[in-house]
Design goal:
single chain, about 450 residues, alpha+beta, FAD/NAD(P)-binding domain, Polyamine Oxidase, Chain A, domain 2, five-stranded parallel beta sheet, five-stranded antiparallel beta sheet, 15 helices, globular, binds flavin-adenine dinucleotide
Length: about 450
């Protein structure tokens, strides 16, 4: 049988979705052009330079359940243990906080959760029974709801205690979906729990990057692409798309050698807003994307003396905005990367109210919060701080949200990105899965 001629494909956007799509297409011997607007690969999960260090535009955490992400890391030659710090499933608050201490031992599932529950400190018998009930009921329902509802409603239906909601479910929901439980999709929350808590023990592990986010995957993806004969072009925002009469595609960009190319297919792997803009640029008046709203995430970096070390690499914090306590999770970056001793990252998800404060005030309040939480007055006075707020960090993951498919319905034009239809909320895994699905859709198209 005659070998099929490789397709020439433009992937617009070198975020995690675009990089995953490009890698998969190269593996299938296609001719790939990856076109990125900025000078750095990684999109919303990228490296930033700060005070001579390579940090991230936002502290990220991955899960052992991120099967496609972990697989593609391996495929581009990354050894997981070199780039990710493996922590067992846990929810640990600093000792000075009236929190809880829940950590899964390295036993097979579901024993790890049961034992963690049995040993958990800070939870009453009633809380533990409620948590066990949640897990049993969710399994019995095969983690599926007939009709989606809010996470808050689900927790009420499953009879979860006030303490368990405050210390475990609400922080987990905000971390995973970046949407407050009153507005968050219970079905998407259950999907994440099914693949982590409800799967094997390794799937529930928490993975913290030891390297900056661009070096974690996107840079390796680009090397892989170039070695396979593909091209990556940076600082090349695509302003519009055109389809010629012969159905080939043209990307309007200031980089002439890209603008001069004709492509058999295009994957728009940008964020939602730019994808919507590019679709609207089409002369044939393509349908626009279903409406979505967005939630911010704020990361506060605080630098202390290099000798300062927290008792844990990662801890949960009790956020109480009314008391100017904004931080939800704290990471000791020095325990993950030798070059970052004394650097602490505090994450505030769904951070609308916090992001309205001045950077100086927010950093001061967060530093005071962690000083109180860890009972260490040195933490109140960092040497420098840096606040980074991504205003449109993720889409608001509301119940029954309509998300677009990878195929646009226009021949040769596909979408990839964390906002497209899928089981996951806006996450690295959601982006990677979407990129792979878009690449497969291109390969299966005529
Ligand atoms: C602060 C923060 C914290 C987060 N924490 C976590 C976490 O802990 N765990 C987790 O799993 N997920 C987390 N996420 C979510 C995760 O980062 C995103 O879901 C994921 O990075 C989205 O990838 P993407 O490829 O779909 O889109 P993007 O990352 O937005 O990539 C799109 C790319 O397209 C480029 N582009 C846009 N327009 C054009 C154009 N016209 N021409 C060319 N290029 C263009 C952009 O520059 C960008 O590089 C977090 C996100 C943020 C912002």
């Amino acid at each position: 049988m005659a070998k099929r001629k490789p397709k020439k494909i433009a992937v617009i956007g070198a975020g995690w979705a675009g990089c995953a799509a490009a890698v998969h297409l190269c593996q299938q011997a296609q001719e790939v052009y990856l076109i990125e607007a900025s000078r750095t690969a990684g999109g919303r999960a990228r490296q930033v330079h700060l005070h001579g260090k390579q940090l991230d535009n936002g502290q990220h955490i991955l899960l052992g359940a991120y099967s496609e992400t972990l697989r593609i890391l391996q495929q581009v030659g990354i050894r997981r243990s070199d780039v990710l710090h493996n922590l067992p499933l846990q929810m640990i608050y600093p000792e000075n906080e009236p929190g809880m201490h829940f950590i899964a031992p390295r036993f097979p599932a579901p024993l790890h959760v049961l034992l963690a529950l049995w040993r958990a400190k800070g939870l009453s018998k009633e809380d533990k029974l409620a948590l066990a009930r949640f897990s049993t009921t969710a399994r019995w329902m095969t983690w599926r709801l007939d009709q989606d509802c809010s996470v808050a409603e689900l927790l009420q239906r499953f009879g979860q205690t006030e303490k368990l909601c405050r210390l475990m479910w609400v922080p987990l929901c905000i971390a995973a979906l970046n949407t407050p439980p009153e507005r968050a999709s219970a079905q998407v929350f259950l999907n994440v729990l099914r693949d982590s808590l409800g799967a094997n023990r390794a799937a529930s592990d928490m993975l913290i990057p030891k390297v900056d986010l661009s070096s974690l995957f996107p840079r390796h993806a680009i090397t892989y692409l170039e070695q396979a004969g593909g091209q990556a072009q940076f600082a090349a925002p695509v302003r519009a798309l055109y389809q010629h009469a012969d159905q080939t595609w043209h990307c309007q960009t200031a980089q002439e050698h890209i603008a001069a190319q004709s492509f058999d297919a295009v994957i728009i792997a940008t964020d939602y807003t730019n994808a919507d803009r590019l679709l609207k640029s089409l002369p044939q008046g393509a349908s626009t994307l279903p409406p979505m709203t967005f939630e911010p995430i704020t990361t506060c970096y605080l630098q202390y003396d290099a000798t300062l070390r927290l008792p844990l690499a990662m801890a949960a914090l009790i956020d109480q905005p009314a008391q100017q306590k904004w931080g939800q999770y704290v990471f000791d970056r020095g325990q993950l990367n030798a070059d970052q001793a004394g650097l602490i990252a505090v994450v505030v998800s769904a951070s609308q109210a916090a992001s309205e404060l001045s950077h100086a005030i927010l950093a001061e309040q967060i530093a005071r919060q962690i000083a109180g939480s860890f009972g260490d007055s040195r933490l109140a006075t960092p040497m420098w701080h840096k606040i980074i707020t991504e205003k449109r960090a993720t889409f608001s993951c509301s119940p029954s949200l309509q998300r677009p498919q990878n195929a646009t319905g226009i021949p040769g034009l596909f979408l990839a990105g964390d906002y497209t239809a899928g089981d996951y909320p806006a996450t690295l895994e959601g982006a990677v899965r979407s990129g792979l699905a878009a690449a497969r859709a291109v390969l299966n198209s005529r």
